[in-house]
Design brief:
The chain has 553 residues and is an alpha/beta fold. The chain has 16 helices and 22 strands. A hairpin with a 7-residue loop joins strand 21 and strand 22. Helix 6 packs across helix 9, helix 7 runs antiparallel to helix 9 and helix 11 runs parallel beside helix 13. The chain is elongated.
Length: 553
Amino acid sequence: MTDVGRVLGTDPAHPLDFWVGVGEESYLQLDDIVAVETDVPGREKITLYGVVDMVRAKYEGARFDSDVFRAAEGVLPVGIATAAHVSVTRIEPEIFVPPQPGQPAARAEGAERDKALYFDGMEKRFAAGLSREGDVIWGNLEFLDGTRGAHVNISGISGVATKTSCAMFFLYSLFHSDVLGQDRANARAVIFNVKGEDLMFADKPNKRISPEDEEKYAKLGLPCGPFQDVGLWSPASKDSTFEIVHSLASRQEGVTAYCWSLREFCQNRMLRFLFAEADSESSQLSYAVSVVERYLFHETQGQPKDRTWVEIDGTRITSFEDLVEHISDQREAVFSRGSLATGTQDAFLRRLAASVDTAGHLIRKLDAKEDEERHRIEWGANQLNVIDIHSLHDRAKRFVVGVVLKQLLEEKDAHGSRQPLVFVVLDELNKYAPRDGWSPIKEVVLDIAERGRSLGVILVGAQQTASEVERRVVANASFRIVGRLDAAEAERSEYGFLTQAARARASLLKPGSMFMHQPEIPVPLLMQFPFPAWATRPDEVAAPTAVPKGFKS
């Protein structure tokens, strides 16, 4: 460790924070790690470790604001004093006394830095990013994989905070290192592509990667290249009638069109996800949805699994439009099992009819059982499964997200084991789990947040403003990450893990820089992650190479 100054005696020192006067030949900057040894009467010597979160400089010997001009002219003799505020992260051994004024302060490096940030006690750790000085910021896997905690929540302004890139890097770090051990091969991730077609090229190398970026990946102990096992899913095109094709414009190969058969829709109770906007839990409309859903399930539950259409009241129904028309024509029989006002029935039928245009192409007649299986989203088929929903109407987006998450939870419940781990990356979390109101998707997301740890389902949620997300979802996240924040949003209670200095800095963060908080470390750490080694749009796709740098042949 290198001495950089001494503990000040003019500012009070406390067990959890103190000031360091910086020597004339030294410097301390924000995020530096400092260690101070101090004697405790009658006890052993202790070491206080901390992170610099504020630095100040001032003239000594000046009294007035105008003295700065006299000092510059050499008329007034002054000295320059620089001091750094240190927030304590660890005390070894734990004797909570303040450091004594005048004690030497040193910049912690190497093993001492790891001790200051509790990295030395992480049995399983993954590379979460780099500090501004290029040192690895480690994350404790036990607080991510469900052993002691789970889930990640990422907040920040859209387009500046690079929330999705951060989530993707976390997955890349886990899937391309040895931290998961024998579980790595079976671990899975499901990510919903909500903006453009950016994530649909995750299996392609990025031609914009520079030698400096490659060095960063090497420092993190990671290969530099695209994801190696990727499944791509895109919604069936509205224009595909006889042959079902996907709707992705910028890529054709390696993409599977997805949709659901009428039989699946009725027998698997998917209707609720067409009415997934946040609503009052006591709403009569939600009761109407449950009544119709039970009707469809009851009428079709005994029908063969090898047919993709349904038969209701002796009528063969082969399209979603026909199903909606049947429900409308037979409304008396459909709603006979529930006491619903005519106005509520009308409201339900209007919204159901509107879903024909917005989501009808996702629920359709398929020629055979094989087609149903061919166009089903298999979240376990590949390690990284990208499900494109960016071009869908909001109602259809909610439908896809709800159905996929429901299917995933049901399969994990049936399996009865935490393995394999499944990471679910869900952007625009405030849309699916809003703070106010109730919806079937919110119910599923809450189930993952509260019970997913025991099932091995890890939620990586992202949103612009955590204050608009259901509190229980955010509170259950062990890892809290923020990029660029609006100044007013940063003052909300959801960001209580940020120090006051970090709140102020959050409004200035550049893309790729984020504050990360994890349970073992009492202060958030500023981290940076390298430029994506996988293409994020068509014009970034590089010519394929035999073996990307860092990968084994």
